[in-house]
Design a protein that fits this description.
Helix content: 25-40%
CATH architecture of the largest domain: 3-Layer(aba) Sandwich
CATH topology of the largest domain: Rossmann fold
Number of strands: 17
Distance between the termini: 57 Å
Number of domains: 2
Oligomer: single chain
CATH superfamily of the largest domain: SGNH hydrolase
CATH class of the largest domain: Alpha Beta
Largest sheet: 6 strands, antiparallel
Shape: globular
Length: 367
């Protein structure tokens, strides 16, 4: 059965309008945030290759994933077309294609829609089936407007895919300019696990980092590395070399044990604090359903993170903050609504995570 023949709302193919003009997102007036394009490799990157490879094989691979990447511009075009090329990767069983591979479009920070590949486009790119190894897809969205005034477009890039190219289509002759800067131009840097990277949000921008970006009109840097955020010295040094407005350290989930946290957590904090004596640092525990903090293993992990906080505060660090996310998905009898697999948040879970952080970040960014 082809659902598209029964319900046309599931139809994803389209014919581009005759009056469209396409532009590479790498060229002005388009501005890219959170990722940089490596011309030598032909891919966007979140961190430099040498840093990724020195950290671990996993970080090296995940550094190509564009989580936290955004493309911004201003136009008065009645439609937006996005054409994308991505290296082939198998789809996930527990995360939507939209979240893994798609691009979400926001107009004046309001969600318009997601452009994503079809199953056929993914399968046909599979090299084992004779495909080219590149997933190619496109789509069109019509931002709802009550007038013809220019609006700011923000494209949130895929959470769990590399990206080779992005081209944007607008109506010929329409206005096209650079987007205004974020209200808070100095970014908030997030370091953490698959949850930080955005697994398993329904779409890019639903992850808690993306939600904070829009809610606070702040630039963000997403250093979430699925299964591979372990507080390594190489990564600690790279993080310490950045200059954000706030650091958020959220790698509880990827530390193999409480003993690993004991060895690395305070060391990571200290590396960052030595390089940035005055910058706010937020320490987070893993997000869970209510009651998980009472489990012996989790209690030991939480205690290690709290120990970093208490020791540092006792040593005089008054710009260090502790955000406890245990239980943030809600009560056990309804908390399953916040997760996909009892670990990774769905979009509701990410909303609840963002709500834990937004009040504190609002205070810190406005001081």
């Amino acid at each position: 059965m082809d659902i598209q023949k029964i319900d046309q709302n599931f139809e994803m193919s389209f014919t581009p309008p005759a009056d469209v003009a396409f532009f590479s997102a790498l060229e002005a007036p388009f501005c890219t945030y959170g990722v940089r394009f490596c011309h030598q490799e032909g891919l966007f990157r979140r961190i430099p290759r040498e840093v990724a490879e020195a950290t671990s094989v996993g970080v090296s691979r995940l550094s190509y994933h564009t989580s936290g990447g955004r493309i911004r511009f201003v136009t008065d075009s009645p439609y937006i077309i996005v054409r994308v090329e991505e290296p082939f990767e198998m789809p996930f069983s527990h995360m939507t294609v939209a979240g893994k591979c798609g691009i979400s479009l926001y107009a004046n920070r309001k969600f318009v829609g997601t452009i994503m590949p079809t199953y056929e486009q993914i399968v046909s790119a599979d090299p084992s089936r004779g495909g080219s190894g590149t997933i190619v897809f496109d789509g069109i969205k019509y931002p709802y407007r009550t007038d013809s005034a220019p609006y700011t477009v923000e494209l949130f890039l895929p959470l769990y895919s590399a990206v080779k190219s992005v081209h944007v289509g607008v109506r010929k002759g329409t206005w096209l300019q650079a987007a205004p800067p974020y209200q808070h131009q100095k970014p908030v840097l997030f370091y953490g696990s698959s949850i930080t990277q955005g697994g398993c949000a329904s779409k890019p921008g639903d992850d808690y980092v993306g939600r904070i970006c829009r809610a606070l009109d702040v630039d963000v840097i997403n250093l979430g590395f699925s299964g591979n955020a372990k507080g390594e010295p190489q990564m600690a040094e790279y993080i310490a070399a950045q200059d954000p407005a706030v650091f958020v350290l959220d790698y509880d989930h990827n530390a193999p044990s409480a003993e690993h946290l004991q060895k690395t957590h305070y060391a990571l904090y200290k590396t960052v604090r030595d390089a940035h004596p005055e910058t706010p640092i937020i320490l987070m525990t893993m997000p869970t359903i209510e009651g998980y903090e009472a489990r012996p293993t989790n209690a030991a992990r939480r205690a290690e993170i709290l120990k970093t906080f208490e020791v540092a505060r006792a040593g005089g660090d008054q710009n260090l903050y502790f955000v406890d996310c245990y239980g943030c998905f809600g009560e056990a009898e309804r908390g399953e609504c916040g997760t996909v697999d009892d670990c990774h948040p769905n979009s509701l879970g990410f909303l609840r995570m963002s709500e834990k952080l937004i009040p504190l970040l609002t205070k810190l960014l406005n001081e």
